Amino acid sequence: MPLLTVSNLTKNFGGLSAVSNVDITLNNNELVGLIGPNGAGKTTLFNLLTGVYTPSEGDILYSGNDKETRLNGVSPHKIAKLGLSRTFQNIRLFKELTVMDNVLIAMNGKHPENFLTTIFRLPKFYKQEEAIRKKAFDLLEMFGLEKKTETLAKNLPYGQQRRLEIVRALATQPKILFLDEPAAGMNPQETADLTTLIYEIHEKFDLTIVLIEHDMSLVMKICERIYVLEYGRVIAQGNPETIKQNPQVIKAYLGGDV
Prior knowledge:
258 residues, alpha/beta, 6-stranded mixed β-sheet, 4-stranded antiparallel β-sheet, 10 helices
């Protein structure tokens, strides 16, 4: 059974269909690309899959917890608890909080606290707090942010803010990680480092990664399968070599006849 099955997914805004009759499947532990020209509906699709928008039509079925769950209309925080996490095209950190606090907040849903233990500051409380901080620090260390734990998120350079957003998403212990243009605004060296990092995340955390990205060299290098959107519809899918040679994809990106 696929990890996520999307059937006939549609999102209408007034008379406009931003996403129309989309069918996709995501399997365990794979790297999937989602590409298309600007305005193709890629981020809208992410918003539907993570609960930001409610579908106008169609179904989103998730089977990551040994049972099939329909995600239509489920709130974003509940979807995150189920195991679907994301980053955003425009960075959305808690900018007035420290790097460490950004990660700790994300971990809260996976480490519920006992009311009495917390109120009376029993030994178990301090032990749990120490364990959670250690997990957060280990994540930050993996992303080269271990020396920035007390830095306010807003004071990080742009590339490090991007990294922190990925750390925060991973802190929710997802089974599917949606990355919305993670290389946006990065220089070539930062993009190369990010490519290596995505490989490491995929291997170490044993999760499915779905990537929206305009850097085609990055997508073609790391993705096993690719879906192509145009005007809200899937016009092609397949491995990178198949996508490179698909006439509809070439036309969508270059325009005109091919």
